[in-house]
Design brief:
heterodimer; A: mainly alpha; MetI-like fold; 8 helices; flat; B: mainly alpha; transmembrane helix (chain B); ArtM/GltK/GlnP/TcyL/YhdX-like (chain B)
């Protein structure tokens, strides 16, 4: 492979990382807003949050990407830059998975902590901000780490829409060289290295956050359940 | 937003074709991932690192890289090596392989959850290794993990549209073809988006019913 082709690969890596950072930020925001909304005391808020989760988790990320690229522009009369369209589709889809993580971690905080907050007459918002979230967030990091890897794998989907990410550069180089084994091996290895680095970063973050609430990280487990898919519309807190 | 019901009815025949292909991919892919995942899980228990390290490394690699690129790899590289399959076969194999690296974790957890007394009983009864696995451990392990496997089938359903990228005409492929021929993007894409939500919702209900049956 010539240096020009390697430049193409590097550009692809850059686009993939941009997309990963932007969509993971959006997904995190969506996860927390929707996840916290699912513990709200008004049923309509819980219902809407649960409905959002079911819809965006129920459909395929690729279908969502197609929808954002092809249906939104004629429907609303404006078109997004590909990078933002990709960010929107991936962020909303993976945010729905993330909201389940947030909801589960909040529900897993010792009930006595919640009762303590009530006894001290904290407002619900104070309880969430000062008591529940500081304890729940460190527990969310391992599942979020797995979700981040899923999101990294999801970013490859935008190449189908012609966005110049890593997988797309791979396709261009295959066409240029008429030879697939080598380039696809490199592309797969680059994805694997990015995933490995992300896992390391998330483990560092977990350690730091757990030290903040006086706990030690859970020992590494290989079991990485993809987010469970068995909740009902309705958003009742289970 | 313009919504044209006649486009929906024009699309429906293509939709059923696509649905059939999607379900085909799903069923065959699931079977491959269930079988292969069990093979990986059993190989990981072989007491020599000459087996466990390569298997662990390969499955870790497959699990942490995008299915889309794996599809391209198999679709374009295998013919270069003189092995030619149809796009559908390649896609089914790729998706089955990818998900087998998830199901192996599920099986592993299930095998580890079998109480140690069962192993001891099998040893006490002097059962050969083969019968220990087939008659004692696996029946209990698999029963425990059926709901978790079902979750991966639902995940797999949502990854079937990726096969469109290697020319398989499943639901999304049919929708794209139809849109490009008729310049109507809204209706077909919305129909299949809705279909995905409905199918995965029904599947999760069925799964929960199955889970309840298995528990009691």
């Amino acid at each position: 492979m010539t240096s020009g082709l390697w430049e193409l690969v590097l550009h692809g890596v850059w686009v993939t990382i941009q997309l990963l950072v932007l969509s993971s930020l959006l997904a995190t925001a969506v996860s927390f807003v929707v996840g916290v909304a699912r513990t709200h005391r008004l049923w309509i808020v819980r219902f809407l949050a649960g409905f959002y989760t079911e819809v965006f988790r129920g459909t395929s990320a690729l279908v969502m990407i197609f929808w954002v690229f092809f249906v939104l522009p004629p429907a609303f009369g404006w078109q997004l830059v590909p990078l933002w369209a990709g960010t929107l589709a991936l962020g909303l889809t993976y945010g729905a998975y993330g909201s389940e993580i947030v909801r589960g971690a909040i529900a897993a905080v010792d009930p006595a902590q919640r009762e303590g907050g009530i006894a001290l007459s904290f407002t619900p918002w104070q309880r969430m901000k000062l008591i529940l979230l500081p304890q729940a967030v460190p527990e969310m990091i391992p599942p979020f780490s797995n979700l981040l890897i899923e999101l990294l794998k999801g970013t490859a989907l935008v190449s189908i829409m012609g966005m110049g990410d890593l997988a797309f550069s791979g396709n261009l180089i295959r066409l240029a060289l008429q030879e697939s084994a080598e380039i696809y091996t490199y592309i797969l290895i680059i994805y694997f290295v990015i995933a490995f680095l992300l896992t390391r970063i998330m483990r560092g973050l977990e350690k730091k956050l757990k030290a903040g609430v006086g706990r030690t990280p859970t020992p590494k487990t290989d079991v990485e359940p993809k987010p469970a898919e068995t909740t009902n519309v309705g958003g009742a807190v289970r | 937003m313009k919504w044209d019901w006649s486009a929906v009815s024009d699309f429906m025949p293509h939709f059923w074709d696509g649905l059939l292909v999607t379900l085909q991919i799903l069923v065959l892919g699931s079977l491959i991932s269930f079988a292969l995942g069990l093979v990986w899980a059993l190989l990981m228990r072989v007491p020599t690192r000459w087996v466990t390290w390569p298997v662990g490394a390969v499955t870790e690699f497959v699990r942490n890289t995008p299915l889309l690129v794996q599809l391209f790899f198999l679709f374009y590289v295998l013919p270069e090596w003189g092995v030619t399959f149809s796009a559908l076969t390649t896609g089914v194999f790729a998706i089955g392989l990818h998900y087998s690296t998830y199901t192996m974790q599920v099986y592993r957890a299930g095998i580890e959850a079998v109480p140690v007394g069962q192993w001891e009983a099998a040893t006490a009864l002097n059962l050969p290794l083969r019968r220990t696995w087939t008659a004692v451990i696996l029946p209990q392990a698999v029963r425990r993990v059926v709901p978790a496997l079902g979750n991966y089938v639902i995940s797999m359903l949502k990854d079937t549209p990726l096969l469109m990228a290697i020319t398989v005409l499943e639901m999304l492929g049919e929708a794209r073809l139809f849109s490009q021929q008729n310049f109507q993007f809204t209706e077909p894409l919305t129909v299949i988006g809705f279909a995905f939500i409905v199918i995965s919702y029904l599947a999760s209900l069925a799964l929960r019913a199955l889970e309840r049956r298995l528990v009691h």
